[in-house]
Design a protein that fits this description.
Elements (H helix, E strand, L loop, with lengths): L2 H9 L17 H22 L5 H7 L4 H4 L1 H20 L5 H19 L5 H15 L3 H11 L5 H30 L1 H22 L14 H12 L4 H26 L8 H7 L3 H18 L1 H18 L5 H29 L4 H57 L4
Helix pairs in contact: 2-6, 2-9, 2-10, 5-7, 5-17, 6-7, 6-10, 8-17, 9-10, 9-13, 9-14, 9-16, 12-16, 12-17, 14-15, 14-16, 15-16, 15-17, 16-17
Length: about 425
């Protein structure tokens, strides 16, 4: 099935009364409010989730733990987030998607504030794990909301805007935390990031229009949810899209987790502000996610997806240089390729899934965050055993598997139905 045929199928979904769904279309006030609200949700989710990443070297010293152990402050959050996403997808079929996302954003912001007062390492990890679980109500549900409410003809561009919000949040959380930690110490830094996340959550609640096309299911039917998940896993192409999410996110988080340990050490010896400012390369991710979505709609989603994966691998390899400007350029390429790939791959999930799009999105996000959690921590073993060269070999190998998965998904998606 071609990309255009896939899009046509997505556009032919109808309501129970056999009438065309009341999609949000470009140029309307509701569309603009929904776009801004989903941007804020992506911003809040990723700023709260990844604000600890530039603090990992500080945690290693403050709490006397190894680099791999310090990465648990992030990996536990993403791991519990992966579990929660599956649960949230099931729960969201019987609850308002808007309400579930609102509760998740507010709860995660309050828990981030609580981490600023954690008296020891183990309680810090408990709070971060709980925060990841609470955040599970946002990513898969947000993707399902977009797939249900946005006109399929512009879904790629809108998904790119949402992913751009996640990029902006990931950048802001890292950069601002680094700057705050440099001048105020890490505890006030986390408190301020939590307060910013809370403000974004309030904005999201005020802006997001209620669902127009969501049909609530009464009660909780485990058999229905299991059937939906296994149905998507039986789709020939979708499991390979999920594999791309796993490997791409694993590579991305591994590089970002351990680049800080490399750059605060000789010969670079960057301080927290300088280290945090490197994360401004997320600006390239914001642009790449939007461009990737638009190009996917115009040139073909798999063509753009393959290009993004190659760019990720090239960026990882370039960080092997001893030159700081070339290392930063490598991180820019990695970031741009990652967000381009993620924007296109997440859009493909909505197009390839036949019904129950929330369940399909939850499986994609499950793979995405399991990759972050498992591979992000495993990268610490490679760092300990072979330094940065071993980390790069690890990430490039993952991207080779992602490329093979993309080629397989393209071939299977184009088979006649």
């Amino acid at each position: 099935m071609s990309d255009s045929a896939i899009q046509d199928v997505a556009g032919l979904q109808t309501t129970e009364g056999n009438h065309r769904e009341n999609y949000l279309t470009r140029g309307t006030g509701a569309y603009r409010r929904a776009s801004l609200a989903l941007f804020l949700s992506g911003f809040a989710t990723f700023s709260l989730l990844y604000c600890v990443q530039p603090l990992l070297p500080i945690f290693s010293q403050e709490f006397a733990v190894s680099p791999a152990e310090s990465s648990l402050a992030l990996s536990l959050s993403t791991g519990f987030l992966a579990i929660a996403i599956v649960c949230a997808a099931a729960v969201s079929e019987g609850l308002s998607r808007r309400s579930l996302m609102s509760i998740s954003l507010v709860g995660a912001a309050l828990l981030t504030i609580a981490t600023a007062f954690a008296p020891n390492w183990h309680l810090m990890l408990v709070i971060r794990a709980l925060q990841g679980f609470v955040l599970g109500g946002v990513p898969a549900v947000a993707m399902a909301y977009l797939a249900e409410e946005i006109d399929p003809r512009g879904l790629g561009a809108t998904m790119g805007l949402y992913v751009g919000g996640t990029a902006f949040g990931g950048m802001s959380g890292r950069v601002l935390t680094g700057i705050f930690a440099e001048y105020l110490s890490w505890r006030p830094a986390l408190f301020l990031i939590g307060a910013i996340g809370l403000a974004a959550a309030i904005g999201f609640i005020a802006l997001l229009p209620p669902s127009r096309n969501f049909v609530r299911r009464a009660g909780f039917d485990p058999q229905f949810h299991l059937k939906a998940w296994f149905g998507h896993l039986s789709n020939p192409a979708l499991p390979f899209i999920f594999a791309i999410a796993f490997f791409a996110m694993g590579s991305f988080v591994t590089i970002y987790n351990y680049a800080g340990f490399r750059l605060v050490a000789p010969p670079y010896e960057l301080n927290q502000t300088e280290l945090g400012l490197i994360f401004t390369v997320y600006l390239f991710g914001i642009g790449a996610s939007s461009v990737g979505g638009i190009l996917g709609d115009r040139l073909g989603h798999f063509t753009v997806l393959l290009g993004g994966i190659v760019i990720i691998a090239a960026g990882c390899a370039l960080t092997l240089s001893a030159s700081l400007p070339l290392i930063i350029l490598g991180i820019i390429l990695l970031t741009s390729g990652f967000f381009m790939s993620h924007s296109v791959a997440s859009g493909l999930v909505g197009k390839l899934a036949a019904g129950t799009k929330g369940h399909a999105s939850s499986l994609y996000m499950l793979a995405y965050y399991v990759g972050s959690s498992v591979m992000g921590s495993a990268g610490g073993w490679f760092w300990a055993m072979g330094g940065w060269a071993a980390v790069v070999i690890f990430t490039v190998t993952m991207m080779a598997f992602a490329l093979l998965s993309a080629l397989a998904a393209r071939r299977l998606a184009r088979r006649p139905s």
